Known about the structure:
By secondary structure, the chain is an alpha+beta fold. The chain has two domains: 145 residues, Four Helix Bundle (Hemerythrin (Met), subunit A); 269 residues, paralog of FGE (formylglycine-generating enzyme) (Alpha-Beta Complex), CATH 3.90.1580. Helix content is 29%, strand content 13%. Strand 5 and strand 6 form a beta hairpin.
Amino acid sequence: MRSTHEARSFPLPSQSGPWKARARAELDAARTRLLSMLEGLPEDALTRQHSPLMSPMVWDVAHVANYEEQWLLRRLGAPAFTDAEFDSLYDALRHPRSSRCQLPLLAPEQAFAYAARVREATLAWLDSLPEDSEEPLLLGGFVFGMVAQHEQQHLETLAATLQLMTSHPYLPRGRALSRPAAAALHEVFIPGGTVRLGSDAPWVLDNERPAHEVDVAPFLLDSHPVTVGDYLVFVESGGYEDARWWHPEGFSWVRSEGLRHPLFWLPERGGWQRRRFGHVEPLPRDEPVQHVSWYEADAYARWAGKRLPTEAEWEKAAVGSDGQPRTFPGGEASPSPEHANLGGDAWGPAPVGACPAGRSADGVWGLLGDVWEWTASTFDGYLGFQTFPYREYSEVFFGTNYRVLRGGSWASAPVAVRNSFRNWDFPIRRQIFAGFRCARDAR
């Protein structure tokens, strides 16, 4: 992400306690995960462009290091390692993903060495910084949280790249997931009323600010995301061939691409299969469906006689209707594996109902983790939005071209998800770990 603009003043809140220990822990967690994910991959796998939708993985390694150098060293007064020309090489907006394989990138050994050198300097510089600084970038440790979240977001991107990789075997050993009894789908009534959207907490990002209140009409929301088994009925009933269910642009796209099912599904004679990180396995019908675009999610919802929730409805369901403020559906504590399938170590969604401690106050399951959930909303700033600390994180993407996703996926880190977190992407995107749940008006 570009970071060439001057930071603007932004009304960040006071921090109630020390933040350095958290900053160090989150930076360490991100780097440990990065090295674990890419350990043992040959140079060709790291430098090859596995899809025009994704960067060569070695680009991401150097990019997160360069971002860290710019924000945690140079912008905080530490000496620079590199210059503006190097920054340009790893500028995400200057070079589209499809062209990055043509750039004179650092070789894998050089990229990892650069990342290690930057991290060593960052941790040394962190020790010298005051925890009670009123500098906007440092207030509450904001800029360290921003960088830790940025690295974890790229690790989710790397997971998507590894899923697309077909030139090298990659068989991750995922954390074992509990397989509860089948969770029956039902609708949860969410009372209408005021909901507090967004947050002013120290580590939230600019598009989540400012916290504000909106009124939401009563609605019904599915108790858990649409499962593979649910979606399979839509596929086998000819849902991809029936224009009645589709947004006109979506149906045109489906026809032009010849789509008949979600990405990575394989129709086989003995039954449906899927390709997952280098091997083929039967479709697990009790998991949330993933790798579906917004158009596919919207079409299923119409077919089911429902619709996608707005992001205000989604956040109201996550916060709960009892009037208590909550950072996560289960409360204030960062979600554990009992609350949500996050962090990337499971390497896939859990069966619905696997994380009962994470139910919302209204009884909605699985709002965090497993799959990003498409909403009906387009991406824009809240009333009173201010860019902080650079336009290219959020502002340049505002408009009707992008749809908002909420809740995080199995590949998202706990530091990078919360009730207020907003993700966005084009409505045709399928390589991301996205699913959805349905809503409908309460009549």
